[in-house]
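Q: Predict the assembly, please.
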Amino acid sequence: MSSLRLGFIGLGAMGAPMARNLLRAGYTLSVHARRPEVLAPFVALGAHAARSPAAVAAQSDIVFTMVTDTAAVEAVVLGHDGIIEGAAPGTVVIDHSTIDPAATTRIAAALGARGIVMLDAPVSGGVIGAEAGTLVVMAGGDEAVFARCSPVMAASAQRLVHMGPVGAGQVAKACNQICIVVNQLGVAEAMLLAERSGLDTTRLIDALQGGFAASRIMEVQGPKMARRDFEGRIESRLHHKDIHVALEVAASLGVAMPASALAAAVLDRLQESGGAALDSAAVITVLERER
Amino acid sequence: MSSLRLGFIGLGAMGAPMARNLLRAGYTLSVHARRPEVLAPFVALGAHAARSPAAVAAQSDIVFTMVTDTAAVEAVVLGHDGIIEGAAPGTVVIDHSTIDPAATTRIAAALGARGIVMLDAPVSGGVIGAEAGTLVVMAGGDEAVFARCSPVMAASAQRLVHMGPVGAGQVAKACNQICIVVNQLGVAEAMLLAERSGLDTTRLIDALQGGFAASRIMEVQGPKMARRDFEGRIESRLHHKDIHVALEVAASLGVAMPASALAAAVLDRLQESGGAALDSAAVITVLERER
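A: Predicted assembly structure:
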């Protein structure tokens, strides 16, 4: 379909379906993972296994990264055998991870000094969206590069929005996470009040989704809260990490975010009580232990 | 269209379009208001003007009330010349106001002692929804009475949900308001962070509405927050009143609602600073005065 050579690093819950979408779209794809059992299914689908991020970069025009946090992006991009050691000038690095915008700016500058271009392109929509190819991409970086790479990113995304210069995608993602974790608290408090009042929560969600209270979080997490079903779709440790990044950005800009700070405190408690791998709908369990 | 005789008390921003919907649907309608200039347009549309709530009730099978708060409902239902003084046994009182569930239970008991039936039927969807006939009704009270009255309420509502016994509609509405005022804070914090970071907020809302951060409040109030356009559609004094009712219900049940308490504190500040008549999107102005 295209002569573009792509690379993908970070074949986890989000990265794996995104890499598969690129293979399905017919792209040539190099992948790297430390564990061979992670690589095998991609090789079976036609991907080239490379022995390091540098090796992936050496054979790619565009390298995607989708890893857990700032430290992991720094390691695969700037670390030993990292992308920066293999990429030719003109290579584009598209980081789909959700990390600190200030770190993004530093990483992009280090790459830029070698003529390597970076887009920060965090996504929203979770594993479901990655599998269905319906993610939203919030991107920062050169607009022409964004436009050129958009058809490739569209393999996993239904909406691609250019937010501004490098780092702007990460700031947008921080805003996204703020809305989610704060809204979660409101939905959780409403569900608790309804339960203790003897209301049928299924019927409540049905009523509330018809008016101004309607939200995607209530749709997706309301029933999970009601059933106390916290099998991880969006693991709380990720929202915990993300809201602390958002609070750091806010602190650096002097923006007061009391509701985000409260949500961070509730997510802190959830981590302390062993809920890191639970779906973040489990914030309701922190509230119900309160008095 | 029907031989049912209806009455409506409370021809304000919400009540007026709801009463007009009943007239348009062809019902016989009696109305009462203290000020003649409020009554005149309804008389012009064919309504009968009555000199008191009691007089409305005396000529109605179903009497609707849509007034500001608990005290106003108590006055028009149980007060001097109130509905209870005019209604025959078997009359149904449908209270569309948003008030304290415990007060609703008391009022229903007082009516019940005279053989008058009450449904609490608060609505969501605001003035826009009332005008378009697309409100959501959350109702408490006898289910057969609810079923019998639903076709009439449908003149203003696209969704009618029976939540349980008397008071259950008000608890559901409290849950609705919790979701709204907490979500508002998250959207406001996200908008402030975006602005201070130099993001285009229109583009941000477009991106965020595609994923898990999506909500009706972001759709409706996000642009108002960005433009600092607070012309009242949902006046903040109403959300302020409602969240304090919700907190009282929660306190009586021992439910911890820290996010609702924070939202109440922000709405308190907005009232103190003269923002009672502003749209509640104006909570963003309280946050931006913080440091």
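Chain A touches chain B through 76 residues (CB under 8 Å). Chain A has two domains: 5-165, 171-288.
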